Amino acid sequence: MPSNTIYHLHNINKLFHNAQGEVVARGCDAVSLDIRRGDFVAITGESGSGKSTLLSLLGFLATPSPAPEPGGFLFNVEDGEHDLAEALSGGIGSKELSRWRADHIGFVFQNFHLLGHLSGRANVELGLRFTSKPSSQTDRAEDALEVLGMAAVSGKRTRDLSGGQKQRISVARALVKRPAVLLADEPTGNLDTANKCLVLAGLVMANRAFGATVVLVTHEIEHPPRVANRTLVMRDGRIDEQHDQEPSVAYTEGETVVELARRIARDCYPDVYVDLKWD
User: Which of 164, 251, 246, 155 is nearest to 201 (CA)?
Assistant: First the structure.
């Protein structure tokens, strides 16, 4: 596998069976895919097309069925290339997969999964609790919050924050351990336009400023060409289309998350851009 490839999947399936053992759905159907280190990949497609299933496989929150052949699922991080065929055959509870998730993968979901009685800072610090990385290879919670424009409200309990602020807290929590990969499953689905752009800006900064490979599942057809350098279109469990593109909104070193979000909004939503409110 080339050194700049972080994931290599070959002929990966995820089948769902009924009580009689019959296949009733194909979440992923013979998927073959290489993801390069530093990519920002957007996965689109209709509901039920397999987008979230593929993301779960990439995050080791689900395992292929049947199990992959040796060499069929490779994961390449800073400590080398790993053939995960054997580990995946043992299910998601295996110690090896748990370690990969804890050290190398950050997650952002549509539902924020924050502890409402804790402050934003305390929630972000939870992102460091299970990693085995030394502190020299992670960030301070305050630094991640600062980059995402959340320092001013980091002391507030998250139940008192807006939806967009909560989602940016969850992005900071995913980033604080400096993961090799950030996986985001419909992170803007419940947000208004301004907060969609703020969260997208946070993901762009995760990719360009933090160096994480980002994989974004989205229904929003406006977003991929603006922020991603690669788009996959899924249909019936298969990758139906894939193409590279030059993102129309590029990150400028030193700009704030709000400045970047405003440029994304101007590009994605020109008709409503001037009326947007930013928090």
Answer: 251
Distance from C-alpha of 89 to C-alpha of 106, rounded to nearest angstrom: 22
Using one digit for the tens of pLDDT, what is the confidence trace for 216-227?
Answer: 999 877 677 789
Helix (H, G, I), strand (E, B) or coil at 169: helix
pLDDT in tens, 119-165: 999 999 999 988 988 888 888 899 999 999 999 999 999 999 999 99
CA-nearest of 169, 76, 163 to 119 is 169
CA neighbor of 171 nearest in space, from 219, 201, 195, 203: 203
Q: How far apart are CA 141 and CA 18, in angstroms?
A: 44
Contact assessment for residue 186 and residue 218, using Cβ atoms and an 8 Å cutoff: yes
Query: What SS3 class is residue 268?
Result: helix
Amino acid letter, residue 22: E
CB 142 within 8 A of CB 120: no
Whether the Cβ atoms of residue 266 and residue 273 lie closer than 8 Å to each other: yes
Helical H runs in 59-119?
Answer: 85-89, 95-104
